[in-house]
Amino acid sequence: MPLIVHKKQKESTSAFLRRFTRVVQQSCVLVRARRLQYRSRPKTERIDKKDALYRIAHRHEMDKLRKLGKIE
């Protein structure tokens, strides 16, 4: 829902800006915008499976190297 703030008659610009910022803060528009600013899209099921398979293979490789004594 858009915010509509009209300047009142005989209202100074600075008073209008103060009133406008108060209305914006109370409506939580900025809070929602900041929260969604760095939001990333969820991964697809195919990419999740691919990443899981990579992690499993990497873990097996590291375990193998540990048993051989090549890494700590």
Which short descriptors sum up this protein?
mainly alpha, 2 domains, 72 residues, 3 helices
Question: What does this entry look like structurally?
Answer:
This protein is an all-alpha fold and 72 residues long. It folds into two domains: 1-39, no CATH class; 42-72. It is 67% helix and 0% strand. The longest helix is centred in the C-terminal third of the chain and has 24 residues, at 45-68.
Shape: rod-shaped
- The number of helices is 3
Record field, number of beta strands: 0
Mean pLDDT: 93
Biggest β-sheet description: none
- Cα radius of gyration in angstroms: 27 Å
Number of domains: 2
Give the low-pLDDT segments: none
| Gap from first CA to last CA | 58 Å
Order of helices and strands: HHH
Strand content: under 5%
Tell me the helix content. Answer: 55-70%
Structural class: mainly alpha
